[in-house]
Amino acid sequence: MRGEILWEPPADVLDTTHVGAYLRWLADTRGRRFEGYDDLWRWSVDDLDGFWSSLAEWLDIRWGARPVRALGSAAMPGTRWFEGATINYAEHALRSAARLADVTAVVAHSQTRVPVALSWGELAEAVARCRAGLVARGVGRGDRVVAYAPNIPETLVAFLATASLGAVWSSCAPEFGTRSVVDRFAQVEPKVLLAVDGYRYGTKDIDKRDEVAAIEASLATLEHTVAIPYLDASSRFGHGAGSPFGHGAGSRTWADLLAEDGPLAFDRVPFDHPLYVLFSSGTTGLPKAIVHGHGGITLEHEKTLRLHHDLGEGDRFAWFTTTGWMMWNYLVSGLLVGTTLVLFDGDPGYPDLGALWRLAADTELDVLGVSASFLMTCRKQGVVPPPHRLRSVGSTASPLPAEGFRWVHDVVGARVQVASMSGGTDVCAAFVGASPLLPVRAGEISGRMLGCAVAAFDPDGKECPPGDQGELVLTGPMPSMPVGFWNDADGEKLRAAYFSDYPGVWRHGDWVTFFEDGACIISGRSDATLNRGGVRLGTSDFYAVVEGLPEVTDSLVVYLEGDDDDVLGELLLFVALTPGTELDDELRAAIGRALRSELSPRHVPDGVHAVPVIPRTLSGKKLEVPVKRIVTGARADAVASRSSLADPDSLAWFEDFAAQR
Fold first, then answer.
1. According to the model, what pLDDT value does residue 242 have?
2. What pLDDT score does 361 carry?
3. Taking the model in full, what pTM does it have?
4. Distances from the Cα of 28 to the Cα of 32, 60, 524, 635, angstroms
């Protein structure tokens, strides 16, 4: 059964959108014309060299040394993109500054301080000063600069200044615990650390100075710490000799870093030169340090933001994210296409769940991105946004159930396109998502992204027919695929992570079902799939039904396999309930009936258990595999880093549950 169509492209879409302008340009300059989106997509993956070279020209990419061609070898891993080219991400992010000097580039709202706005000219000047400050501290090409800071202008400025030098950036949100930060930053051996003293979340002040001191003490390569007085901007925090956090002699404040004027210059580096290091969730072992390059990120993000989100000059763009999630890197790339960024730091539920919707109205947002769980919670709590000019609401982090699509259509607005997307930190981009040229159906992602050769494979490595569920794979390369893992010189870890199941094909780890028109449904992580009696059950199907019940706020399901083929396993469902609700036999029966009628008898759990909170990472992902391992006897500390969790104590209940079993 396909979801009903909730949104369709307007009749003038080819005349009013950036993708329409690109299609006209292709027709005029390349003689290429397409029957529709599917025809365009197929060309974009069948002729990767032609597509990406045309896009680089249409986007007016600023090369230093020009490339010989877009694509050398398409073999994966080891694909070579734009060989011989030099480029700088920050140069593209700031190229609007010369023409739009007095136009607002960044608007920052926070629960810690009053709103801040920067024009393009002010942003460029701050980046130039920060660049000079980093140079004075010995930072150059290839050196690492890390930040323990939230989604605020200082973090953005420091990132762009770092990129302008060809140095390498990495960041963690200040809600990360000390161990999680050290596990990440120690891998890249930074020279400079930027850190806030604390922040306010809702009405709660959270002092982070002790954590920063501990982080400093654990980073042997650190030469300088730059303190950003954020929680208490009026104090003399960080002034004078020594570290404001209690360690080291090379520490100064943000004002010190920007004290000297300097030129706005850009070191054009090879296409695959490291831009930043992103980290996997780190629920087991050390987080993977995933290296992304200047060229791949510049092209991939410009493509997606301009052709898929239809963003450009005059538009306003926000995504609720922290600096520890790839969506922050995605958000700040809005500068590449000349949009005004709206940054938000704080509790999205304070003073109520309407906070982000009021922000969207007050700042006149065109595109707002949030998580699927946020949309579903708004639906459940009856949030009604104020009048706004939003034309698109992005959704990611987990599959958005059909009810979430309908809520946006019915409550946020029928003219608002739901841009449900799926991708990953691994590529810092999306494989599947929305397009101005594609309709939106309830519960479905609209289509494959341009240039993404994405498919569903069966266990034998054959493409699944439309309507059949399979492993989400990429049969061709993307420019934003990692240039490598940090400290993985021979590429062994990277090959093991993505290419060990299907040689030469990227296996991402999601279950996906594609339809004839290219739309798809993501059914959850394939490593967390429930194989009950020989039938694969996607976890997202459970969550859509269970969390649709008014008594349930969150849920997690695991399947414990039997000892052999003749012994069925045990399907366990854990639910977090609304305040005042008790899990009694009546509610258990109601959950079972809903799963049986909306899914199948195989989806009815053997046991339903109420928990205080469902364990999630700081980026909002449920810990399905770690919980399964804990329930079967593993220690929580052996399967998950508590400091990488939204609630570090969320695993304690499952340890007690396992002990009682």
1. 43
2. 98
3. 0.86
4. 8, 16, 42, 63
CB distance 466 to 519 below 8 Å: no
The total of other beta-carbon atoms located within 10 Å of residue 73's CB is 11
Cα distances (Å, whole numbers) of residue 447 to 333, 343, 444, 476: 22, 28, 9, 17
Domains and CATH numbers, the chain: 104-270 (3.40.50.12780), 527-660 (3.30.300.30)
* Encoded tokens for 22: 């690109």
**Distance (Å, rounded) from C-alpha 76 to C-alpha 254?**
42
Instruction: Work out the burial of residue 551: count CB atoms within 10 Å of its CB; fewer than 13 is exposed, 13-18 middle, 19 or more buried.
Output: middle
Q: Could you tell me the two tokens for 129? A: 């000063």
429 DSSP assignment: E
What contacts 115, CB < 8 A, 6 or more positions away? 107, 108, 109
Q: Count the neighbouring beta carbons within 10 Å of the beta carbon of residue 648.
A: 16
Q: What's the pLDDT tens digit per position in 161-195?
A: 999 999 999 999 999 888 889 989 999 999 999 99
Any idea which residue has 């997509």 for tokens? 41
CB 435 within 8 A of CB 444: no
Token pair belonging to 450: 């341009």
Question: Tens of pLDDT along 381-430?
Answer: 999 999 999 999 999 988 899 999 999 999 999 999 999 999 989 999 99
Query: Is the pLDDT at 284 greater than 80, yes or no?
Result: no
**Per-residue pLDDT tens digits for 498-508:** 999 899 999 99
Residue 478's φ and ψ, nearest 5 degrees, are: -120, 145
Strands 367-371, 392-396: pairing kind: parallel
